[in-house]
Write a structure and sequence with these properties.
The chain has 267 residues and is mainly alpha-helical. The chain has twelve helices and four strands; from the N terminus they run E-H-H-E-H-H-H-H-H-H-H-H-H-H-E-E. It has three domains: 2-51, no CATH class; 62-133, Serine Threonine Protein Phosphatase 5, Tetratricopeptide repeat; 162-267, no CATH class. It has a two-stranded antiparallel sheet.
């Protein structure tokens, strides 16, 4: 943006509060015409619109200063962990464990978003020890998705074992469907039926989306023919037919409780 001003008044203009990106284009044109007519010397100030330099906000992010400082300290300590095995634990004591619940969860969300998977796992293990902690299937689904994307499949197994060991799981159908989708996306079919049994054990009844993900995903896999048959029998008991398997699902974008974006199928 070019703003034309009289050189004699330049110092006062630079200190003026109104000089900024909001200056109107028509004002600039009027000044140019006036100075051409009078022959007054002019200077051109090039101004950059700072809004163009701003990185887009990550949807669902709401980091306090304390959370940001904790993330930075954890990442630094984790990088030096091999040189000083106590440094990371010291940062957990001095920075992380002093945070409020909301900030702790924000730290975990941000580390997952940045795909610092192993550090995020340490943070999650620490959060599980808090008195206020309540397990959320959607959080586990997000973690498994991120870990699988990073090809940390042994850690996927570990996180899933943590999920199975939880005592008070809510019947969170959206979370279970997200988990099914992640497992199927990365061909982790060995965990699929176990997860299906886990869902039923917490009185979470599968819906049409659940059966579509599982049956359509397992069909054609020879090793999973038995599992597919069991799922079809259950679907028939609940819905009476399997025509809904052929239906296309609408999608909507939602933000999970962990702040990560995911697509949700609407039955």
């Amino acid at each position: 943006m070019d703003v034309v001003v009289n050189s004699s008044s330049l110092p006062s203009l630079l200190s003026s509060s109104w000089l900024g990106p909001e200056l109107k284009a028509w004002q600039t044109r009027n000044w140019k015409q006036q100075h051409r007519a009078t022959g007054t010397s002019t200077s051109v100030i090039k101004m950059r619109d700072r809004s163009k330099n701003r990185k887009p906000l990550q949807r669902g992010r709401n980091l306090s200063i304390e959370a940001i400082q904790a993330i930075q300290a954890l990442k630094r300590a984790n990088q030096n962990h091999h040189n000083n095995i106590n440094s990371l634990e010291q940062v957990f004591d001095s920075k992380f464990r002093r945070l409020l619940k909301f900030d702790m969860m924000a730290v975990l969300r941000e580390l997952l978003r940045q795909k610092h998977c192993l550090l995020a796992l340490k943070v999650f293990e620490d959060i599980r020890k808090e008195d206020w902690y309540k397990p959320q299937v959607s959080l586990y689904a997000d973690m498994i998705q991120v870990f699988a994307e990073s090809e940390l499949f042994e850690h996927v197994q570990l996180v899933y074992l943590y999920l199975k060991s939880e005592n008070c799981l809510e019947p969170e159908i959206v979370g279970f469907n997200a988990l099914f989708r992640s497992l199927m996306s990365f061909n982790l079919t060995g965990l699929v039926m176990d997860c299906y049994d886990l869902m039923k054990s917490v009185d979470c009844e599968p819906n049409r989306t659940s059966f579509r993900i599982l049956i359509n995903g397992l069909d054609g896999i020879t090793e999973e023919e038995g599992s597919s048959a069991i799922l079809k029998q259950d679907a028939l008991k609940i819905y009476g037919d399997l025509e809904f398997l052929k239906e296309e699902e609408e999608e909507e974008i939602i933000v999970t409780k962990t702040g990560l974006l995911r697509r949700r199928q609407i039955s």
